[in-house]
Amino acid sequence: MPTASNLRLGMMLAWLLCSGLATAQLQDPCLTRSIHVFVGNQKKALDRLGPDNFSAEVNKQSIKVVSVEPNIAPRRFLILLDISESMRTARSVDRVLYAAQEAITALPPESSCSVTMFDEQIEAKMSCSSNPSSLKVLLSSFKPKRKTAIFDTLKTSVDSLKDPSSDDVILLITDGIDNASKHKVGEMRRIILKTGVRLFALTFYNRDPDELRYGVADMDDLGSLNGNNFVAGDRDFPNDLPGFSDFMYTQMLYMTRAYRLTIKLSAPLQNDQYWKLKLKGLPPDLKKSASDLLYPQKLSGCQ
Predict the structure, then answer these.
(1) CATH 3.40.50.11030 for the 76-256 domain, yes or no
(2) Is residue 18 over pLDDT 60?
(3) What is the DSSP string of 220-284?
(4) Domain boundaries, given as residue ranges, for the chain
């Protein structure tokens, strides 16, 4: 017959086993994910939401929102500047440099930052702490090349990150046309989705829209995985600097003022899956300000 001490020991062992299993489940990267979500509008981000304000599901199965952290600045912020010949029109150069400088100015001080210039290869890399005017000086020192290796540059940039995650952001400034990469869009899609790195593509265009539709579609596809995509051309881009400044302010809100949601799936995903995230239970004053809900379109499968 078991003694009282043996019963207590058995209960303690059972508790430890259950506790250990629960901890292991919470730490299992197949079940527990870190997702960055922007909630707000073009002027401000909301920062008073909790787990009870989100509902999520995948394959009609509920996803538990474990925790919510507001105003998560990027751990690392990489700016990739396309300096190929097609980006060297006077209007594009001014906009590209201004966009990069606006991004650097708006970046939280706790985020590390670098700028990479590329065409058919990476030509230069500099710290964001350098004098902003040095960007233009450095850009003018390169003779324009006709070919552009967007996907190769993206892969090299992600590979350069130690333990890449959704805490890292890449801002790609390009016209969206890749004609020199060894790596293809499908490979980059898998890498972006697997690592969780958030890609935001500011896609200028100054060519015929029919020529660009495939390039812009590629950028839109990649950007929608973990970040966002915004297209700008001669016809729909803010021409005045105040308008451009407002435009970049909104984009930097999306990139630097996101919530970090820790979510827990009920079972591992075998394949990449679309999922749904919704807001709920918002008081009236917050509901009016929550016009934008930006989150990754897909959750990566565990393979």
Answers:
(1) no
(2) no
(3) HHHHHHHSEEEEEETTTS--SHHHHHHHHHHHHHHHHSEEEEEEE-SS--SS-EE-EEEE-S--H
(4) 29-72+266-299, 76-256
243 band by pLDDT with thresholds 50, 70 and 90: confident
Amino acid at 98: Y
b (16+ CB within 10 A) / e for 124-157: eebebeeeeeebeebbeeeeebeebbbbbbbbbb
Mean pLDDT for the stretch of residues 218-236: 66
Q: Measured between alpha carbons, how far is 297 from 112 in angstroms, rounded to an integer?
A: 26
Percent of the chain scored above 90 by pLDDT? 51
Alpha-helical segments (H) within the chain: 4-27, 90-106, 133-140, 150-159, 185-195, 209-226, 241-256, 284-287
CA-to-CA separations, 137 to 103, 125, 128, 142, in angstroms, rounded: 18, 13, 14, 9
pLDDT top residue among 77 and 145: 77
Q: For the ranges 58-62, 86-90, 125-129, 153-157, which has the lowest average pLDDT?
A: 86-90
Q: What pLDDT sits at residue 206?
A: 58
CA dihedral over 173, 178, 180, 185, signed as positive or negative:
positive
Which of helix, strand or coil describes residue 167?
coil
Between vectors from CA 199 to CA 245 and to CA 270, what angle results, nearest 5°?
150
Which helix H or strand E contains 72, and what residues bound it? strand 61-72
